[in-house]
Design brief:
Blueprint lengths: L1 H16 L6 H12 L15 E4 L2 E4 L13 H17 L4 H13 L5 E2 L3 E3 L2 E7 L6 E7 L24 E5 H5 L6 E7 L5 E7 L6 E7 L10 E12 L2 E7 L5 E8 L8 E5 L6 E6 L5 E7 L4 E7 L8 E4 L6 E7 L2 E7 L7 E6 L7 E4 L5 E8 L3 E8 L2 E8 L14 E2 L8 E4 L8 E7 L6 E6 L5 E6 L11 E9 L5 E9 L11 E5 L16 H4 L4 E5 L9 H5 L7 H16 L8 E6 L1 H12 L6 E5 L5 H5 L7 H8 L5 H8 L14 E5 L18
Parallel strand pairs: 33-34, 33-35, 35-36, 36-37
Antiparallel strand pairs: 1-2, 3-5, 4-5, 5-6, 6-7, 8-9, 9-10, 10-11, 11-12, 12-13, 13-14, 15-16, 16-17, 17-18, 19-20, 20-21, 21-22, 23-24, 24-25, 25-26, 27-28, 28-29, 29-30, 31-32, 32-34
Helix pairs in contact: 1-4
EC number: 3.4.21.-
Family: Belongs to the peptidase S9A family.
Pfam families: Peptidase_S9, Peptidase_S9_N
């Protein structure tokens, strides 16, 4: 599947825009395949009329029969096999080029590698990749003289023959041998470092089983917890807290599990009965509390659990108030709370005493142009992740001693970054230290890990992802440009290209990526497989359109509900800008989006099919209206806060105006590659692009 997604999508992009970029042998093979008549005919799906009527409006879906929640219908599976066979036939002449691309992509990967070790208690923990293996090993080493070795930006894990040996806690490669699909999404070490709880998915449906093992010998401890989410945390050395889902896969219950007892006897700590809300779980950096959040798209409230006394249950930290959302951290005798409201849409940072959560002290006020995105809390420091003018920022603050009053913050110190556009995210840091760890990358800078000393301002690169094959970041140019939307709004675009291979005269091929939903920030990130396009003279661009969160909360609010059209018109404006500025032409413009970004693809293709040459839609959410009318489909009820509830007439007609399936018409569409998943929990086949219109 990894090969299919990377090499085939790049293949279609490269060949459709610039067939001369492939080898002559590839083109001859394609021509031969077509001329000899070996290409299959497109599969013809039967039509079964399915009428849907609401508010006097009648819609007919002749392919609704493709809905098969069991994924076992012989008729549906047969049709999918025919579609796959047809795709293979169409691309049969490109096999040589596809193999070449795959070899390039694979050849850039350093297969034998380890992650940057992080300190946790008396150990370094890290993961290891082995050459020729797909999955990770989870490892640790004892820290020599742990009590006498404080954290430092210059800290390095000793690996000599006389140093503590490596211990492999879990080898995913061995576990994966028993399954066609395998994924671990949580790996949690107990406070005493004797046990590990990990969440395992063996189907790809994101329904997990949590196993507990003895760290030293790998033996299972107790029975696994089944049908759970990957949200699992240790309360103490023998107690886990975890979350389960309801029949529509909405996380709705928090449970307390004592090791050695049966799951059927676990205690339900909280049940969220409102089906528009979902719950989540995290442990404080101090390890003293667990936080349970319940949220929809506009409201979030929090409970806390004393990790030393989990049997005491949940206590309210922030109350349920419609329109107010909050997130919590802990340090000493205070909780730190990010709080967002309609008035303070970019959030403010507050502190409140642990023993009286009703008394709050503002630490960072709301600012209209700067959004508080996240915080990392330490024993003596606070790191705040912000967004300003479409770019992330990190500000480090020194905190007063725990026993001193917490009334304000001193001036913080901003961390400098080297690229004009980039992405930066928190990484696991040691609470009782002054060292902030973060990950950084840009369109030309591979994924990097930095340690930053918040006392001195010293920053040290701990690792830069190795890209084999002679990659040189200095050969690539990154830019930030701004397109003007139809209502005058300035929309940021991030751009990268290889400077010695482009002409910037309209003749260059360009791939434009977009998402624009859920307040997700599509910050410019590095992707080694993308080099196969850049090194063939492609330009790559990201349209940071409304509906995302790149420019703050209002950017998101102005691209959802009854303003969702802004998402699509922003993307079109970005495409037009790139053409006007001669980065490409219509004949050389390819677009890509996945999931909600696939809805973006479908909508802009219906609106402006003349503007694009190629489109790639991965697991696209294209049957938006029918999906949002069916509350039995996973996530539908919680999604009403994102798209609107089409059971209300105003939303029905607005959503119908952009829902891709409902707006297909007889017109000249560009080349389109659609990929879909059979076992996805949250986007069923009939919601994706499996419609033979």
């Amino acid at each position: 599947m990894w090969r299919l997604f990377n090499s085939r999508s790049l293949l279609v992009t490269a060949l459709s825009l610039s067939p001369s970029l492939s080898s002559p042998n590839t083109l001859r093979s394609m021509s031969s395949s077509s001329s000899t008549g070996t290409m299959r005919s497109p599969p013809a799906a039967k039509k079964v009329e399915h009428r849907m009527e609401m508010f006097g409006d009648v819609r007919v879906d002749n392919y609704y029969w493709l809905r098969d929640d069991s994924r076992t219908s012989p008729e549906v599976l047969s049709y999918l096999q025919q579609e796959n066979a047809y795709t293979d036939s169409v691309l049969s002449g490109t096999k040589q080029f596809e193999d070449q691309l795959f070899k390039e992509i694979r050849g850039r990967i350093k297969e034998e590698d380890i992650s940057v070790p992080y300190r946790q208690g008396p150990y370094y923990y890290y993961t290891r990749n082995l050459e020729g293996k797909e999955y990770l090993q989870h490892c640790r080493r004892l820290i020599p003289n742990h009590d006498m070795t404080p954290c430092s930006v210059h800290d390095t894990m000793p690996t000599g023959p006389d140093d503590p040996p490596e211990h492999v806690i879990l080898d995913e490669n061995i576990k994966a041998q028993e399954h066609g699909f395998y994924s671990i999404q949580a790996f949690k070490v107990s406070p005493n470092h004797k046990l590990v709880a990990y969440a395992e998915d063996t189907k790809g449906d994101e329904i997990y089983t949590v196993h507990v093992i003895d760290v030293e010998i790998g033996a299972p401890v107790g029975k696994p917890l089944t049908s759970v989410t990957c949200d699992v945390e240790w309360a103490n050395d023998d107690t886990l807290v975890y979350i389960t889902m309801d029949e529509i896969l909405r996380p709705d219950k928090v449970w307390l599990h004592k090791l050695g007892t049966d799951q059927s006897s676990d205690i339900c700590l909280y049940h969220e009965k409102d089906d528009t809300f979902s719950i989540d779980l995290q442990k404080s950096e101090s390890q003293e509390f667990l936080f349970v959040g319940s949220e929809n798209k506009i409201t979030r409230f929090i409970f806390f659990i004393d990790a030393s006394k989990p049997e005491d249950g949940l206590k309210v930290l922030t109350p349920h108030v419609v329109g107010i959302a909050s997130w919590a951290k802990h340090r000493g005798n205070h909780f730190f709370i990010i709080r967002r409201s309609e008035e303070f849409f970019n959030s403010e940072l507050l502190a409140c005493p642990v023993d009286d959560v009703s008394v709050t002290t503002p630490l960072i006020p709301h600012r209209e142009r700067i959004k508080i995105q996240d915080t990392c809390l330490f024993a003596n420091h606070l790191a705040v992740y912000e967004r300003e003018n479409g770019l992330p920022k990190v500000i480090a603050y020194h905190l007063p001693a725990v026993d001193e009053p917490l009334t304000s913050l001193e001036d913080g110190r901003a961390i400098d970054f080297i690229d004009p556009v980039y992405t930066v995210d928190p990484a696991q840091s040691e609470f009782n230290s002054s060292i902030l760890r973060f990950s950084y990358s840009s369109l030309r800078t591979p994924d990097s890990v930095y340690d930053y000393d918040m006392n001195t301002g010293t920053s040290v690169v701990k690792k830069i992802e190795t890209v084999l094959g002679g990659f040189d970041a200095s050969e690539y140019v990154t830019e930030r440009k701004w397109a003007t939307a139809s209502d005058g709004t300035q929309v940021p675009i991030s751009i990268v290209y290889r400077k010695n291979l482009v002409n910037l005269d309209g003749s260059d091929p360009l791939l434009l990526y977009g998402y624009g939903s859920y307040e997700v920030c599509i910050d410019p990130w590095f992707k080694a497989s993308r080099l196969s396009l850049l090194d063939r003279g492609f330009i790559f661009a990201i349209a940071h359109i409304r509906g995302g969160g790149e420019m703050g909360r209002q950017w998101y609010e102005n691209g959802k509900y009854l303003k969702k059209m802004n998402t699509f018109t922003d993307f079109i404006a970005c495409a037009e800008y790139l053409i006007e500025q001669r980065y490409c032409s219509k004949e050389k413009l390819c677009i890509e989006g996945r999931s909600a970004g696939g809805l973006l693809m479908g909508s802009v293709l219906n609106m402006r099919p003349d503007l694009f040459k190629v489109a790639f839609a991965g697991v696209p959410f294209v049957d938006a209206l029918t999906t949002m009318l069916d509350p039995t489909i996973p996530l539908t009820t919680s999604e009403w806060e994102e798209w609107g509830d089409p059971r209300k007439e105003e939303f029905y007609h607005y959503m119908k105006a952009y829902s891709p399936v409902d707006n297909i018409k007889s017109q000249n569409y560009p080349h389109i590659l659609v990929t879909a998943g059979l076992h996805g929990s949250f986007l069923h086949l009939h919601q994706q692009g499996i419609r033979p219109h």
